[in-house]
UniProtKB/TrEMBL annotation:
Gene3D superfamilies: 3.30.70.20, Leucine-rich Repeat Variant. PROSITE patterns: 4FE4S_FER_1, 4FE4S_FER_2. Keywords: 4Fe-4S, Cytoplasm, Iron, Iron-sulfur, Metal-binding, Oxidoreductase, Queuosine biosynthesis, tRNA processing. PANTHER family: EPOXYQUEUOSINE REDUCTASE (PTHR30002). This is Iron-sulfur cluster-binding protein. GO terms for molecular function: 4 iron, 4 sulfur cluster binding; epoxyqueuosine reductase activity; metal ion binding. One of its GO terms (biological process) is tRNA queuosine(34) biosynthetic process. It comes from Pelagibacterium halotolerans (strain DSM 22347 / JCM 15775 / CGMCC 1.7692 / B2).
């Protein structure tokens, strides 16, 4: 390693820390020759569900050089977004509409990207090399590269885990044509622990380090465009966007300090959102309430779909009037889930009355089928 290389790395590390990144490391671009094989077995298993972009971007995802042939080194950074309380505690309060920790704040892509560009600018000025910046915006295998760069290791829950931030780490990536001194890769430190696998409410881990998205509540509540399959509705509980169970239970979180980064801290209005208030959001108020957060991308219809699952699971009949109002919503996703929610809360006479009323006018076959599920 040259003295010049060490100096540049020290400057980059210091700048990364100043910008709010809690971890920093560098990997050679070819550090993970196992990636094509890893990707192939993941795609062959079909565990990515209907996330077709995984297949479509496969060739470019296989290695950094497949995406950009000039790349020599990969700079990886992580930003700690650890919450100040265990999110598992909020699952028992059925009056809450529980949003995953990462989505309770401004979209991290927006926050991290500017900081990453600043860091990449320093690298380009000091070396004269080319740089490219990625925050989950291109087919980059961020987690294995972060492991190679020494930021942490991919836990049995498949998420990158660090000694300092536990499971709560946003990743940013810089590709550069500069050859930089590499960091020491981090070894896997899960040992015999299986807490994340055991807590999963839908048994979505067919094996350690393997996630079947087709069984994952985060996938159904965030990515899936259709109706929530029947077998996942009860396990969803009051989760209306994402699921943190496997992240939150990890023992390594005890070494994480709650983030002090204001831009990566929860908005209290979202963290404490009540289910009654969420069921009453129309499209405009939904977009205002979740402005600049990942939840906004879900759209109000799918968000209401999820809230109706939570209402059906709440055991609280006070939600019935709000649910009934959604019987006439323009989206069949919402109308269908309103029927399911009513059937969880209403008595037999109420259910029969509503059934007759809605079947008289409902024409969508999937919505009508909800009465016979
Ligand atoms: Fe690894 Fe245990 Fe954390 Fe899962 S809960 S990622 S097995 S240490």
């Amino acid at each position: 390693m040259s003295a010049g290389g060490e100096t540049i790395v020290a400057q980059l590390r210091a700048r990364a820390s100043f910008l709010g990144f809690s971890t920093f490391g560098i990997a050679p671009a070819d550090a993970r020759p196992d990636l094509p094989q890893k990707l192939q077995s993941a795609l062959q298993s079909g565990w990515h569900g209907d996330m077709e972009w995984m297949e479509e971007t496969r060739d470019r995802r296989e290695s950094p050089a497949a995406l950009w042939p000039a790349v020599k080194s990969v700079v990886m950074v992580g930003a700690n977004y650890a919450p100040d309380e265990n999110p598992l505690n909020r699952l028992t309060d059925k009056s809450l509409a529980n949003v995953s920790v990462y989505a309770q704040m401004r979209d991290y892509h927006d926050v991290i990207k500017g900081r990453l560009k600043d860091l990449a600018g320093l690298l380009a000025r000091r070396t004269g090399a080319e740089v490219k910046v990625f925050v989950d915006t291109a087919p980059v295998m961020e987690k294995p590269l972060a492991e190679a760069a020494g930021l942490g290791w991919q836990g049995k829950h498949t998420v990158l885990l660090s000694r300092d931030a536990g499971s709560w780490l946003f990743l940013g990536t810089i590709f550069t044509s500069a050859e930089l001194p590499a960091s020491t890769p981090e070894a896997e430190k899960c040992g015999t622990c299986t807490k994340c696998l055991d807590i999963c409410p839908t048994d979505a881990f067919p094996a350690p380090f393997r996630l079947d998205a087709r069984k994952c509540l985060a996938y159904y509540s965030v990515e899936h465009k259709g109706q929530i399959p029947l077998q996942f509705r009860k396990p969803m509980g009051n989760r209306v966007f994402g699921c943190d169970d496997c992240l939150a239970v990890c023992p390594w979180n005890k070494f994480a300090s709650a983030t002090r980064d204001a831009k990566l801290s929860a908005r209290e209005t979202i963290r404490d959102a009540g289910l009654s208030d969420m069921l009453a959001l129309d499209d405009r108020r939904f977009r205002d309430f979740f402005a600049q957060t990942p939840v906004k991308r879900l759209g109000s219809a799918r968000f209401l779909r999820n809230c109706l699952v939570a209402a059906g699971n709440s055991g609280d009949r006070h939600h019935l009037p709000a649910i009934e109002r959604l019987f006439t919503h323009e989206s069949p996703l919402v109308r269908g889930m309103a029927i399911w929610a009513v059937r969880q809360l209403a008595d037999t006479a109420e259910t029969e009355g509503l059934r007759a009323k809605t079947l008289a006018t409902e024409t969508d076959p999937e919505v009508r089928a909800e009465w016979s599920q």
